[in-house]
Amino acid sequence: MKGVKKPDLPQKICAACGRPFTWRKKWEKSWDEVKYCSERCKRSKTA
């Protein structure tokens, strides 16, 4: 993803809060498994 501008990064919808979130470097190797936008949403898991 090097050299990609922010508006061009992939997005997903959070399974807990329903808001869109953008790809982050720390999710580079596990982007397919990421479901939640934050640890807070991951802990609440209210879909």
C-alpha-based Rg, rounded: 11 Å
Helicity level? 10-25%
Largest sheet properties: 2 strands, antiparallel
Strand order of the largest sheet: 1-2
Number of helices: 1
Average the pLDDT over all residues and give the rounded result: 90
Percent of residues in beta strands?
A: 5-15%
Structural class: alpha+beta
Unreliable sequence segments? none
Report the end-to-end length measured between terminal Cα atoms: 30 Å
What order do the SSEs take from the amino end to the carboxyl end, as H and E?
A: EEH
| Total beta strands | 2
Approximate shape: globular
Organism: Sphingobacterium bambusae
Pfam families: DUF2256
Protein name: DUF2256 domain-containing protein
InterPro entries: UCP037205
